[in-house]
Automatic annotation (TrEMBL), chain A:
<comment type="similarity">
    <text>Belongs to the peptidase S45 family.</text>
</comment>
<protein>
    <submittedName>
        <fullName>Penicillin acylase family protein</fullName>
    </submittedName>
</protein>
<keyword id="KW-0106">Calcium</keyword>
<dbReference type="GO" id="GO:0046872">
    <property type="term" value="F:metal ion binding"/>
</dbReference>
<dbReference type="Pfam" id="PF01804">
    <property type="entry name" value="Penicil_amidase"/>
</dbReference>
<dbReference type="GO" id="GO:0016811">
    <property type="term" value="F:hydrolase activity, acting on carbon-nitrogen (but not peptide) bonds, in linear amides"/>
</dbReference>
<feature type="binding site">
    <location>
        <position position="206"/>
    </location>
    <ligand>
        <name>Ca(2+)</name>
    </ligand>
</feature>
<dbReference type="GO" id="GO:0017000">
    <property type="term" value="P:antibiotic biosynthetic process"/>
</dbReference>
<keyword id="KW-0865">Zymogen</keyword>
TrEMBL record, chain B:
<feature type="transmembrane region" description="Helical">
    <location>
        <begin position="79"/>
        <end position="103"/>
    </location>
</feature>
<feature type="transmembrane region" description="Helical">
    <location>
        <begin position="6"/>
        <end position="32"/>
    </location>
</feature>
<protein>
    <submittedName>
        <fullName>Uncharacterized protein</fullName>
    </submittedName>
</protein>
<keyword id="KW-1133">Transmembrane helix</keyword>
<feature type="transmembrane region" description="Helical">
    <location>
        <begin position="39"/>
        <end position="59"/>
    </location>
</feature>
<keyword id="KW-0812">Transmembrane</keyword>
<keyword id="KW-0472">Membrane</keyword>
Length: 816, 118
């Protein structure tokens, strides 16, 4: 009797324990069972002959999907709804967990699955008003029949895929974290667009700039933080381009306000946004197109490589979309219908980020701690409040936070001088209702230059340089996006939230955004640098990404003739370091070599013999890339650091100008020492410091100092914590100021080259694979080629029954 | 004989039932027809099914997933993970079969014959 009961109890207990999650670990029973668990997530190679037919709800007609040997789906549908339905379906099939995670990150819902650890990240999304922006955008998107059809189709397709999953089919990350995929909603697409706006246009440095202004005054601030690079620049729109439009009246400038509070205790209120990391150089991109006269084909050739966070699965998903009015190939963002960067039979396009200042901070004065009113134009104006609820795994009650909105935006940022509550309102393009999706929808179907220009007018943000080429031999580039009409330097410093004159005063008309068509020089290009030279009548921003990549690209393209796709591929992989060419000869000239030890001298000789190529095996590149930041810190850190009051550092261009043209300036002196240091002193000490750093991290100078090893590019799984899902160590050259902008964790997330012509010929690759499943042969099948700088020829089909030796599986979605 | 019955029935039922069906099948089989070594036979049957199917899935995918999960769990490779998997499945099966056998024995008039059958 006892034995039987003990045995039964033991069985039940064991099953109970195995069926429950153990802390962060998943429930072991379902996780390990080969019938339901992770064993189900290993995939065998695809049978190239296989044909599959699925019966699905709500399709209007049948859809045929041909896969090619790299895992790219080619979708053939008979109408838009079915086209985006199928795109949603195949994207979810390959990337469901990525879609779930990225939507949660954007909407501040990570804590529902990850618990308290991610609460701060969620709060940040809520405080920025991601939901506020997404809801406003959804309303507009659903009111236009084109975007509505696409969103509803895509949503139905994703849900059709989710619905037919049983728990054994869930992507492995769901099994590891012990949760289920939830229904897809159209607003998720808006959240994905918000997330892109946040990544590319979601930062500001005006608090740091206001601190500089307060410490050094206007004159020095103007000298050290000029509105256009002082040493060198090669703007997106070629200098000298005429602006033949009637410009709007520029709003009158107000005097920069000072908000310094003598009683301030420099403490951040608890419920404010955290300190933003400075802009990472390496998030940016290159694109260009050469005209027919420069190509061997007699037609334009276009190239694009957007630089983003490199991850597995990749941020991009390749797809071909074919319907009666569409036949487009390119990369999409999982969660967003249509192709974002790509080509069709007639045109090709690509994007790079514009560093437009579309994120401003306004100092707000509340009437009292209820924050029901704020001071605006000499009266108390009521605020609006929005309650954010964050559900946290393992806790019954959601975390509640009340976000106060003014007409500027949510009051959630802080300049560290306030008391209990944040006092800086965020005015951000991410809150501006728009239907950015239409730009991509229309580009997908564009036939010519006019279609392209029309598509540009829908774009809100994050502002992008849209490069364009067509088979009528046009090339063009447009600085696209809604750009606020501002007075000069409006938003360079914190703005006064009580003055209407400091508000954004409308928009630059889309037709007056900088653009150029078929310029004299025979090519168009961009690399995140200044949009225009100072002759452009409107203010876009005072600082853009550094100019070196653009300078190199424009030099190479100017010299190019009889170019083909491979010439442009080589330029995408160009490792030439313009920064080094600019400053290294002078630095080596002033360096006091007599005081160096023999091993330091050996390093110096290596550096002096360098060809300025950031090649993977270069040791000189490692020394230079270590030395430059050390030199910049040595020049500025003594004057530009203060506890609790972060200060902006002068740019790289300004630093190089100082070294080359103003070697006698006081900034070289370290104010923290009694001695008076000069440029040669600082060059010497920072050179030695750089060598010491390399020595400490990599031992004495040897092949272990090779640039690829020092830089150590890595591609992590999106979880950032499941190391076995990461890519193996990579051997890559490049660098942040180099055309091949591969850094430790950022780089060319998609490289594409398209030869326009009667039939387009296109090449492309991204570092990863189409499948997000680490157990799939398509998880990182493209990685090696990407690492080698090679491209895949892209399979562009005109009909579903075309035979192509690279086609494999066929999937038919059959209307139920 | 019970070994084979458990292997077949549990394999089929696991195709559409949750994983814990492996705690029901051996119980039912040994309740239905008590036999020798209920623990060992049940353990072996479930462990065998999990081992064989897991091994097949490991093999066709070249261990792409199992080797990585093993690493996450600090095991050296997918084969060790496979052994752990089989051990856990076996333990559930074994205890379940034993319970079925012993509970059946509690029923009036059954105990003396139970161990002599089959």
């Amino acid at each position: 009797m006892a034995k039987a009961l003990i045995s039964l109890l033991a069985t039940i207990t064991l099953v109970y324990i195995l069926n429950r999650p153990l802390g962060p670990a998943p429930a072991l029973g379902p996780f390990l069972s080969p019938f339901t668990g992770i064993w189900q997530n290993g995939e065998k190679p695809v049978d190239p002959e296989s044909e599959e037919v699925l019966k699905l709800d709500s399709l209007k007609k049948d859809v045929v999907i041909r896969y090619d040997d790299t895992g790219v789906p080619h979708i053939f549908a008979e109408n838009d709804f079915d086209l985006y339905y199928a795109q949603g379906y195949v994207t979810a099939k390959d990337r469901l967990w990525q879609m779930d995670l990225q939507t949660r990150a954007a909407s501040g819902r990570l804590s529902e699955i990850l618990g308290k650890a991610t609460l701060e990240i969620d709060l940040q999304s809520r405080r920025l008003g991601m939901g506020y922006g997404a809801e406003a955008n959804l309303k507009l998107a659903m009111s236009d029949p084109r975007s509505r059809e696409a969103l509803l189709g895509y949503t139905a397709g994703v849900n059709a895929y989710i619905r037919q999953l049983s728990s054994r089919d869930y992507p492995v990350e769901f099994k590891l974290l012990g949760y289920k995929p939830e229904r897809w909603e159209p607003i998720n697409t808006m959240y994905m667009l918000e997330q892109m706006t946040l990544n590319l246009a979601g930062r500001s440095n005006e608090v740091n700039m206001s601190n500089v202004l307060e410490k050094y005054g206007k004159e020095i601030t103007d000298q050290l933080f000029p509105d256009y690079p002082m040493l060198q620049e090669s703007p997106v729109i070629p200098a000298g381009t005429k602006w033949d439009f009637k410009k709007l009246l520029i709003p009158a400038a107000t005097s920069a306000s000072r908000f310094s509070d003598s009683l301030s205790d420099y403490k951040k209120p608890e419920n404010s946004l955290p300190e933003r990391e400075p802009e990472i150089e390496g998030i940016g991109s290159n694109n260009w197109a050469i005209g027919a006269e420069k190509s061997i084909t007699g037609y334009p050739v276009l190239a694009n490589d957007p630089h983003l966070d490199l991850s597995l699965p990749s941020i991009w998903y390749q797809v071909q979309l074919h319907a009666p009015e569409t036949n487009v190939y390119g990369v999409s963002l999982p969660g967003i219908p249509a192709v974002i960067i790509g080509f069709n039979k007639d045109i090709a396009w690509g994007v790079t980020n514009v560093d437009a200042d579309v994120f401003d901070l306004y100092k707000i004065r509340f009437k009292d701690d209820t924050r029901n009113f704020y001071w605006y134009e000499n009266q108390w104006k009521p605020t609006r409040k929005r309650e954010e609820l964050i559900y946290v795994k393992g806790e019954k009650e959601p975390v509640r936070e009340e976000i106060v909105y003014t007409h500027h935006g949510p009051v959630t940022d802080s300049d560290n001088t306030s008391g209990k509550f944040p006092t800086l309102a965020v005015k951000w393009i991410g809150h501006e209702p728009g239907n950015t999706f239409l730009t991509f929808y229309e580009l997908n179907k564009s036939r010519n230059y006019d279609d392209y220009r029309k598509a540009m007018t829908y774009f809100v943000g994050p502002a992008q340089n849209f490069v364009f080429a067509d088979n009528s031999k046009n090339i063009a580039i447009t600085v696209s996006g809604k750009l606020p009409l501002k007075y000069k330097d409006q938003g360079k410093f914190v703005l006064d939230g009580s003055k209407a004159a400091d508000d954004w005063q409308g928009w630059i008309p889309a037709g007056q955004n900088p653009f150029v068509k078929n310029p004299q020089r025979g090519f168009v290009s961009s690399a995140n640098q200044s949009s225009t030279d100072p002759s452009y009548p409107y203010y876009i921003n005072w600082v853009f990404s550094p100019s070196e990549r653009a300078i190199r690209i424009n030099e190479r393209l100017s010299a190019m003739s009889k170019a083909n796709a491979d010439s442009l591929r080589k330029l995408q992989n160009d490792n030439y370091n313009v920064t080094a060419r600019t400053i290294l000869p002078e630095l080596l000239h002033i360096l006091n070599t007599a005081a160096l030890t023999p091993s330091q001298k050996a390093s110096l000789i290596t550096l002096a013999n360098w060809d300025y190529q950031n090649d993977p095996e270069s040791i000189a590149a490692s020394i230079f890339e270590e030395w430059m930041p050390a030199l910049r810190s040595a020049i500025w850190n003594d004057e530009f650091s203060a506890a609790g009051k972060p200060l902006e550092l002068p740019s790289r261009d300004r630093t190089m100008y100082l070294v080359l043209k103003q070697p006698g300036e006081k900034w070289f002196d370290n104010v923290n020492t009694p001695e008076k240091e000069t440029l040669p002193d600082i060059a010497f000490s920072s050179f030695k410091a750089a060598l010491d750093t390399l020595n400490n991290r990599h031992g004495a100078m040897s092949p272990s100092w090779q640039w690829s090893k020092v830089k150590a590019t890595e591609i992590r799984h999106l979880s950032r914590s499941l190391k076995p899902f990461n890519a193996p160590p990579l051997t890559t050259g490049g660098g942040s100021s180099v055309v091949n902008a591969t850094t430790k964790r950022h780089g060319p997330s998609w490289r594409m080259v398209v030869e326009l012509g009667p039939e387009p010929k296109a090449y492309g690759i991204y570092p990863g694979g189409q499948s997000g499943n680490p157990g799939s042969p398509y998880y990182m099948n493209m990685l090696k080629k990407w690492e080698n700088g090679e491209l895949n020829e892209l399979v562009f089909l005109s009909s579903p029954d075309r035979s192509d030796s690279r086609l494999t599986k066929c999937l038919t979605l059959h209307k139920k | 004989m019970n070994f084979i019955i458990i292997v077949i029935i549990s394999a089929v039922m696991q195709l559409f039932m949750p994983w814990w069906i492996v705690a029901v099948v051996p119980f039912a089989v040994y309740f239905w027809r008590p036999g020798n070594s209920p623990f060992l036979a049940s353990f072996a049957a479930i462990a065998f099914v999990w081992l064989a199917y897991g091994f097949y899935l490991h093999l066709i995918s070249d261990g792409a997933m199992s080797n990585r999960i093993a690493e996450i769990l600090s095991l050296s490779n997918g084969y060790i993970l496979l052994l752990v998997t089989a051990l856990i499945g076996g333990l559930v099966g074994g205890l379940s079969g034993l319970s079925g056998f012993l509970i059946k024995g509690l029923l009036p008039g059954r105990l003396p014959h139970a161990s002599s059958r089959n």
